[in-house]
Records
---
Amino acid sequence: MVNIIKSKSFKLVLLTPILILLSHYLVVFIHEYAHAFTAWILGYKNSPFDLNYGGISLGNLLLLSNVDQNVNNHLIYASGHPGHVALIAFAGPGIIIFLFFLSSWLIQNKKTKGYPYFLYFLLFFNLWCLGGTYAYVPVRTFTPYGVMVDVLDIEQALNISPWWIYFLIGYLVIFMIWQFFSKTLISIYVNVDISSTIGRASLMIICVLIVFGYCGLAGFVNQGDISHFISATSFLAIPGIIFVLWPTRKWIKAQLKEFKLEK
């Protein structure tokens, strides 16, 4: 029995970086193709697969940092349809938010719980959906004009203040963060059989670093002073978040008991 547990733990360790990369690829391309397909349906692209794939640099191959939807917003504005700019811009983050809740539901589904490795993949897919949303709201909600960011395209096209998005979508993002770290992650501890404190802490720290570190630092790259401040705050909050989410906390143990009863 001990050997089986050790073998499973070893497999999870090996799978973790692979699943992180694969799930990130999937989320990024779903996001960008959502933009491209919407633009194609509206008649602004000849092919929905015509993305800017960003080249073969190591950074782009690993992080897809140069991939974008390759949509000509100037052409759309010139045609007199600013609402279409907003719709195309919303399609990317909109589908990612939808997939966050769909994957959250799948992780809690009784039929899915019988497939631990699939659950483990869904965890990281769900995580990147959360991180991608967080990178827009709140991190880049106040991006200055002249920078290509979906949330800015929505603000400009609809001629609305970024405060509306920060306020309204911000509450949704808070709920998504709460859902992931207080429900989804803890259910993975139980249903993937991650029983040691070291294993749970390691997974939790990886998730925190991806959301509040990697995704949270998006505001540092030419996004203006406010976004820079939010990114700095996100980064500085990481130790406190890890402290609150440590697997031996009483509230974590209480949640674990609930999920074990449901298993």
---
Amino acid sequence: MIRKTYLYENSSWNDVLDSSLDSPNTLVICFGSSAYNLIKNAMEEVYHVFTNSIIIGCSTAGEIYNNELYENSLSIAVIKFEKSKIKLEIQELNNSEESFDVGIDLANNLFEDDLQGIFILSDGLNVNGSQLTKGFNFILKDSDVIVTGGLAGDDDKFEKTWVIIDNKPKSNYVSAIGLYGDELNIAHGSQGGWSKFGIKRTVTKSSHHILYELDNKPALEVYKTYLGLNSKDLPASGLYYPLMIKEEQDTHEKVRTILAIDEKEGSITFAGDIPVGSDVMFMKASYNQLIRGANDAASSKSIKEHENEKAINLAISCVGRKLVLGQQSEEEIEAVTKNFSDNILQVGYYSYGEISPLVSGDCDLHNQTMTLTLLWECEND
């Protein structure tokens, strides 16, 4: 596997794009500013240089290149696989209610006996991430396929996200890359760092990822009570106070982030499901907690065993973490890279949701986490 990473910032590349890496078995992963016009010329050059390669990408709430955070830029990884196979599938997502079926279709189209992993990049607003991952799990439940990825971002504006489809930025799509072959290896890690506060509440009315009532009170009213003066800046200010959710049958807790609010209905739309009967609590985090969470993601057993591989690491963190950390956001990125050798190259982005396996092996939507995907091929004997 041959790997190179590039950064485009202030109308220039940090290095010349290597056309010798172009091939049908080359994957180009692009994480760019949601303001596509700022990176349009760079993307056109990518399309021109890598005409035979598979190109995927999405809009972000901040771009990661090595151990630094950038904005209004383009961070890309070019991976030429020498022993493995890759395959791209895309599906249009007309509305979030189609998320489960889209997950099923993508998993069905990608599944083969030697499928090792799937990397997903999805529209960040018009999707139910929980249902999308449930669709993948429905098809892959009896396999060991590792599914990771993330939802596109739009800084803290929540207006429009895009995914690269046929060399164009398009909303309302999900792209998924299948990674095949016994020589391909994938490691992963995901951790948060948020703590619960306030009282436990019960979801008394919801529909999939739209929350209407907590303890029989309008959900938005309850949320505004906790946010106080910050409520005027919803939905962006809600990123500072995500929701912990625990369903009765679950052994683990999940975190959910706000995507939108409806003042008329008093409802809140989240990135994933909020089922009726679930216990929820508000969450908050400190600088130290989030940095520790990023370090724990890179220190997970799956990642730590392979810290010296000649690999690409795809780091996906949540926009909520970036807002809390502010100018110290780079310190959580550095908390990841300090666990790696110089053999590992890193690109990534800040997202509206992260996709990673649970302890059970099933993938799920996570929010407010640092999620890592390590890719490498076996070395020649």
---
Amino acid sequence: MSPGAVIIGAHANGLGILRSLAARGVRPAIVSTRPYDMAQHSRWVSERHELPRFHEDHGALVEFLEHHAERWAGFTVFPTNDDAMTALARNHERLSRSYRLPVQPWEVVSVLIDKDRMHALAEQVGLDLPTCYGPAATLRVEAHERYPVLVKPIQHDRLISAFGAKLFLAHDRAQLRTAIAHLETAGLPGLVYDFVPGPDREIYVYCVYVDAHGEPSPGITVRKLRQNPPMVGGARAAEIAREEPALREATVALLRKAGFRGMAFAEFKRDPGRGRFVFIEVNGRAVLFNGILPPTGVDLVAMSWSDFGLGEAPRAQPTGWNGSWVDLQADVACWWRYRHLERIGLREWLAPYRWPHRHAVWSASDPGPFLHQTARAARGILRGGTGGARATR
């Protein structure tokens, strides 16, 4: 009998993990940590649990896993957010006694979580980077003249809990002061960066798996088409893009320098002024659009399951599939809410739906998550909200 799995976080990225594992005969237990999670309503879930205070208390996850350690001995634990990845990495030795963790110890993971350390490592590798103006708390706002800028917390999950955003885009001093004040309210250190110009469709993500010997798998390049919210959010529509050798070289060099193993999603933005890719960040766990990968044959979740869950060598078998991925509800809500900002015509908006595509949430064979997501959005509209999905990566 194959070992089982536990997924920490039940948003769209958790749903992508769940469905990839279900296709391999695994029915995971899933732990919801956000009120807008929907993956726990999937037909493929074996157990449903809630940890609503986890993002304020990482110790709650450790206690939860230890409580179930005897029953779930040998299960693989998949994180879907930085808080979960941090908790597993910081308690790696302790939790590894009972579980299989596709997450490395904190000395490796911290380089991916801490934006300051990630920036420094990328500099060492020689990647193009946006200008960093230093810590938000010490920035002289009145003297700062270059806009727009991004205000990023070192770790964004607590900011999502407090403000429903993972970072802030400031176009002037007033917005910059407000963004810094929000970080201080959330008790988070942060950094201020130049905003790389250009629309969301200039963002590219290189997806690759690094095995135990440090060897990278074949990779897939995903191009974001639209984000929720625009300019500073998570993907709501994306497509498979042509191979960009520069992205693979940069990603592999960075991961090897960090000593990283596992699934990785490295994000870049093409700077139209310089015509080069600027490094933004790298994630060492599943992201929102990981559901686009299974038909490409480079399914990073399946490879992680083989590597850690089954103890087999992870293998990629590229199929050449070139399709798209859409989060239907978020895409519809944002198209309406941000119509004056994005100015997307109906033909452009419909394009990814005309190609072969995968849905983030909707599935005819597994409608529960979509129905729950839609019902929650409807309640939000009736209460006077936008009904749009939250933006997380």
